Model the fold of this input.
Amino acid sequence: MKTVFVTVGTTSFDDLIETITCPEAVQALKARGYEHLVLQVGRGALLPAADSCPHISLEAYRYKDSIAEDMKQADLVISHAGAGSCLEALGAGKPLLVVVNDKLMNNHQLELARQLHMDSHLLYCTCSTLTETLRSMDLSVLQPFLPGQPKTFANFLDKALGIQ
Done:
């Protein structure tokens, strides 16, 4: 069963949870053959019920000690643009679609997502463009992010955030 794992990390990103469970986004996922949607909703107000998304199997929770198994089982990871979540998904070798929270002030998430996208490691969008991105995305263009190079990643973050 093709699975999508959505994570917001330890934050609150209700707009992402609301958007990914809307009928249009669910239909876009179904059209791509996804049948199971797992949501890690963090401290947000929304915790969708298993029966709240017709036509797709839905599982939602706030936190687990580790999301590694959810990432491992996923065919696609959709994440907020937190550095930890991005690094975990890329390290797991999963196709990654990052949804930038454009309501954040001084948003460094956009710089991180943009740089990783320019290097062909992920796709990114905002909540307002998520459904269209799901319809049109081409995951075959993504290149692996080689793990085990913390200095390289630190330099990459410095570059993405304009520190270097």
Remarks:
- The first strand starts at residue 3 and ends at 7.
- The first helix runs from residue 14 to 20.
- The mean pLDDT is 88.
- The beta strands are 3-7, 36-40, 57-61, 76-79, 96-100, 123-126.
